[in-house]
Amino acid sequence: MVNMVIIIKKNINKYLILLVAIMGMIPALAFAAPGIPHQFYGTVSYSNGSAVLSGTVKAKIDGVVVATGSITNGQYGYNPNLFFVTDPDGDRTGTTISFFVNDVETGTTAVFANGGYTNLNLSISGSSSTSGGVGGGGGGGGGVTTPSTPTSQLSAADQKVDANKDNKVDVLDFNTLMVNWGKTTANNVADFNGDGKVDVFDFNLLMINWTL
User: Fold this and answer.
1) Which of 80, 97, 79 is nearest to 37 (CA)?
2) Taking the model in full, what pTM does it have?
3) Where do the domains of the chain lie?
4) What CATH number has the domain spanning 156-208?
5) Cα 138 from chain centroid?
6) pLDDT per residue as tens, the chain (212 positions)
7) Per CATH, which fold does 35-124 belong to?
């Protein structure tokens, strides 16, 4: 019986030693766990306001590149090209991030925060190049010609229901009637009979004078 108690005590001591060792490892494991990344997105432009259409955005901490993303049509960090600054060792909280566009420093910085989600617009000096430039002035044309107003081929009755004045009474005039149906505003373009209402009487006039 005494031997059995000694054996049990020895086993308990082994388990206690193992438990203490495991407990001692937990803080180290927690310390080494990676932190949640910080996501950035926004526009990329030149100082004159024109967009940087392509290239790369880089994020640096203490001069070391920690993230790189592509620029598409003056934007970065949007789906599917998301832009994350990671925290592999869980020690970047509060550090300053510097941003570069096509390896040119933007002067824009941000503070890293685990789980951050930041709209950060970036800009660099310069301007986008334009191909072809502004076209040269053409030869001096003649004076401005004012187009003459075509003479309507419609009868006076037809002209009253030609709502869009294209010298036809057709589906376009019908559309105008439907858009204004039921309105009682003064001088309504679809009030063909001039009674201050757009209703069935105007519809009847349109049908009587339908040309197409």
Assistant:
1) 97
2) 0.48
3) 35-124, 156-208
4) 1.10.1330
5) 39
6) 555 545 545 555 555 454 445 455 555 444 556 788 899 999 999 988 899 999 999 999 999 999 999 999 999 999 888 899 999 888 999 999 999 999 999 999 999 999 899 999 999 988 765 433 333 444 444 444 444 444 557 788 888 888 888 788 887 888 888 888 899 988 898 899 989 999 888 888 888 888 75
7) Immunoglobulin-like (2.60.40)
